[in-house]
Amino acid sequence: MTELILSMQENSAHGAPKKGHIGPDFSTFWAQWPRKTAKKAAEQAWAKLRAADRRAVLHVLPSHLAFWKAARTAIEFIPHPATWLNGERWKDEVVMPTSRPEPKAAAGPAWWTSHVAMDQKGREVGVGSARPGETSEQYRARIQQAIAERDRFGGGR
Fold this sequence. Notes:
Layout: H1 2-10, H2 23-32, H3 39-48, H4 51-70, H5 81-86, H6 115-124, H7 136-152
Helix pairs in contact: 2-4, 6-7
């Protein structure tokens, strides 16, 4: 009967160790976690995890940390550790953000260096030619605004 009880405890849904024992792995987890918030709640969430889940957490945590760093996630948007553990977020798929290559500059003189080049660029981005009475600076500003809007909304070259 005693063996059956021990066996049931080892194979229980949580498989957690004795109450109050969180093990040295929690300190490893806590040391790596970037947002040091609600440590007691995190310890309680850790204590509820099965040993296999604890190993999984420690195994995948570096990829989550790398994702948050690559995505430049602000600290306030990184979940509290207890929330992350209770939500089994270590099972989430982590897709690293791709870096966008910088657009290559066109060969030849820049479009703002001559009236002809500015007029050509103005037509290319849809603002047309300079308006009557519009200064070169005003026309260049309209072109730059059109380029910025095109880039922002994905209408790039």
